[in-house]
Amino acid sequence: MITHTEGESNTSEARRAWAARHPDAATRALLARDANAFLHQSLSSPCLSTIAKAEGIWIEDTAGRRYMDFHGNSVHHIGYGHPRVVAAIKDQLDALSFSPRRFTNDVSVELAETLGALAPGDLGKVLFTTGGSDANEVALRIARAATGRFKTVSFWDAFHGAGFGAASVGGEATFRSHIAGPLLPGAEHVAPFNCYRCAYGHAGPEVCGLACARMVEFVLEREGDVAAVIAEPMRAVPVVPPPGFWKAVRAACNRAGALLIMDEIPTGLGKTGRMFAFEHDEVVPDIVTLGKALGGGILPIAAVVARADLDVCGDFAIGHYTHEKNPVTARAALETLAVIRDEGLVARAAELGAHALARLREAVDDDPRVGEIRGRGLMFGVEIVADRESRAPAKEAAERIYYRCLEAGLSFKISAGSVLTLSPPLTIAQADLDRALDIVADAIRAEAR
């Protein structure tokens, strides 16, 4: 189902106008059932519309309206229902549908070996979980065990999952503000890299001296006993780190004896034009977490990939999950990785992403409502502002643009209140990508009228 956008009220004017234009009985009936059946929470339920079918880059609602999906909760790198993944899952169901945790099976071992071979450096030991939040919590447990410390450094506005530990190191208010009582102790936060002028060429690291990285170093030095820094290599808002940022943080972690954990759950597996987003910055973390798209847009599976020498938890449980070595989810992941490799989707994401950024800049970069056009690969966004001088978010304008796009057949996410965040499948045809970019440009220009 399509939900309301980030920061949007369920009763916003744009939302009400959308609902008034689409009063078909099938949609109303299912939305009413959803509202009655599910616990309500931000960004999930109640919903805006319905989904009856998902295939390739498309989602279709119960009234037959079709939308290109440029959000997909970051699961649809290879599109929805890829025929190779569907066939692989069906075959695996016939061969071996489940494996109790104390037994192993060939397909799960093969997946672990494949991920270990894909990851750079000494990253090579693997553990599977059912979701990204769990994967990040496993990574934190490994860091505690390996260092004998419990403190962490992470970033405000980051998202690392909805679990209690993941929300503690995360920095999004939606997942923290209504939890009664304290979160995990020792979860220190610093301001995120957010220097658009540095990261996008308006200034350079020589101007600020990478003050954002020095904030991390300051906390590591001041605390003295931090187990790990956990972070998204590229913020999914999206914001690209300034040149040299991660090298500086990596060096600071080495000096402080802290591990570096990279959460690649939305950005990994080729989305940014490299298999892992941290490869753009020429660093290798101590632990990397993967998820979402790993299941091919069909099944839930996530993974922790750690340095071999961090295999120090054999005497206790760090991720004792019932589906830890599920052969069906493992087969879906193996076939997803094969599709990414065989169809050259990593290089394709880099090529199409550069094309998309260039086309958007040509179309709307001179619009006073556009603050920045930014991203890497097929994760990019357009910041909508009240004016370029103040860079104040124009939330209501962004919502109106979003609903114009939805009306024209394009669904995406609004991040940070007013950033049109576009994340299409890596399999998208260039003609469809161009059509979507035209829809966005037309909707932005319509704000002037």
From TrEMBL:
Keywords (A to Z) from UniProt: Aminotransferase, Pyridoxal phosphate, Transferase
Top-rank taxon of the source lineage equals: Bacteria
* Database matches in Pfam families: Aminotran_3
The signal sequence is: none
Query: Which protein family is named in the record?
Result: Belongs to the class-III pyridoxal-phosphate-dependent aminotransferase family.
Instruction: Spell out the Gene3D superfamilies in the cross-references.
Output: Aspartate Aminotransferase, domain 1, Type I PLP-dependent aspartate aminotransferase-like (Major domain)
SUPFAM superfamilies for this protein? PLP-dependent transferases
Matches recorded under CDD domains:
OAT_like
Is the Manganese keyword given for this protein? Answer: no
Classification of source organism: Bacteria, Pseudomonadati, Pseudomonadota, Alphaproteobacteria, Rhodobacterales
What's one GO MF term for it? transaminase activity
Name under which the protein is recorded: Aspartate aminotransferase family protein
